Amino acid sequence: MTPEQIKQAIEDLIGTDRVRLDGEALDIYGRDWTKIHTPRPRAIAFPRSTEDVQAIVRFARENKIALVPSGGRTGLSAGAVAANDELVVVMDYMNKVIDFNPVDRSVTVQAGMITEQLQKFAEDQGLYYPVDFASAGSSQIGGNISTNAGGIKVIKYGMTRDWVLGLKVVTGAGDVLELNKGLIKNNTGYDLRHLFIGAEGTLGIITEATIKLTRPPKNLTVMVLGTPTMQDVMQVLKAFQSQVDLTAFEFFSNNALDKVVAHHQLQRPFDSVTDYYALLEFEAETEEVMDRAMQVFEHCMEEGWVEDGSISQSEAQAQSLWSLREFISETISHETPYKNDLSVLVSKVPEFLKEVDDFVAETYPGFEIVWFGHIGDGNLHLNILKPKDMEKDAFFEKCHHVSDKVFAITQRYAGSVSAEHGVGLVKKDFLHFSRSPEELAYMKAIMQVFDPGNIMNPGKMFDA
């Protein structure tokens, strides 16, 4: 079908002014934050309800048209890129709160709700949605669920999966399923909800989600500590975890700090310069908690694990210290980074990071590396920056070979080639480093059950 025929057919189903074919829309809604693939969608559809989505899916299945679900388009694995003449299903207009239950402390929202809007809604009810990351101002709940997003609070609050009480989905077969219905306990066979969490739109489209909320944290306090080595960072983590209930534990290299400070004209946390920095956050609810934290800090200084440190004295200072970590991704985006999102057991982080660092430095000495990540849960972000005199295509081609070796190292450490960003187009050729042939066979079989026509985000995660 031509784009014009698709537009007419879909608008006959869900209403006028719901499909765009103009070049601006095709470019905006056909891509995500990755820069590797050129968007080439056929048309862009804007549903307003689950019924609209179901009508689109049934139409697409009948006419053998591939669909790409599109949320906030903040993904880093090209999971929302439409590069092969697909019909993009944009969730931007499905952004309403459907129901709130203060007794159950749960809220049901449409999948297009912005993460920050959900956080603000929870705050207005005296509650808290703890899944948080740099893209919270533009990422959408459906996309977060589809990639099982993690972020900066995982060490205490877990991944997105841990906060999803129920889902409404439209499968690739065109059926509407209500999964788990917000229950805490539901021991009635397979929990299909969890298949859709992290499925990257390959089984169907999430249209609504029931999300668990919790109490807001009190008096969050932030420390940034300068450490000589990665092993020292791990000693600091161990020392603080033994005495303080941490809500976050992040790390970044001095290279990352230099770039953020220069780009955003921020102040360094202290005058001393160290190779690595740990950012930790905790609830200083009482003087006793603060005293314990300061005792641990002094112990780390005495042991030589920490050379200098800074602690927030107000909410504004806490946010200022967080900016040193949260602005890294945006800062390096101006230098065309090749990003890898890896995880290993927390105890293996220092030796794993050194082995990867040594490999890239020896093999491609002209490549600049920027490290940061959620080290409290073993999640490392390896960023290789494009040399100024290298063409983008040549750079990404070289990095593809780098990834092959880096993922082989990751496999030896029994780690994951994608900790929180998903697989998409970027990682699908490397999935075998983290999944066995048997696992992949079962995953493909599951996909065929939910999407027998292979129309749901085809080519993402793996080829059918």
Automatic annotation (TrEMBL):
GO molecular-function term, one example from the UniProt record: FAD binding
Needed co-factor(s): FAD
Domain FAD-binding PCMH-type residue range list: 37-216
Biological-process GO terms, alphabetical: respiratory electron transport chain
Keyword Calcium: no
Keywords per UniProt: FAD, Flavoprotein, Metal-binding, Oxidoreductase, Zinc
Keyword Metal-binding (UniProt): yes
Pfam families with a match to the protein in the record: FAD-oxidase_C, FAD_binding_4
InterPro entries: FAD-bd_oxidored_4_C (IPR004113), FAD-bd_PCMH (IPR016166), FAD-bd_PCMH-like_sf (IPR036318), FAD-bd_PCMH_sub1 (IPR016167), FAD-bd_PCMH_sub2 (IPR016169), FAD-linked_Oxase-like_C (IPR016164), FAD-oxidored/transferase_4 (IPR051264), Oxid_FAD_bind_N (IPR006094)
EC numbers on record: 1.1.99.39
Catalytic activity: (R)-2-hydroxyglutarate + A = 2-oxoglutarate + AH2
Subunit details: Homodimer.
Family listed: Belongs to the FAD-binding oxidoreductase/transferase type 4 family.
Protein name: D-2-hydroxyglutarate dehydrogenase
Originating species: Marinospirillum celere
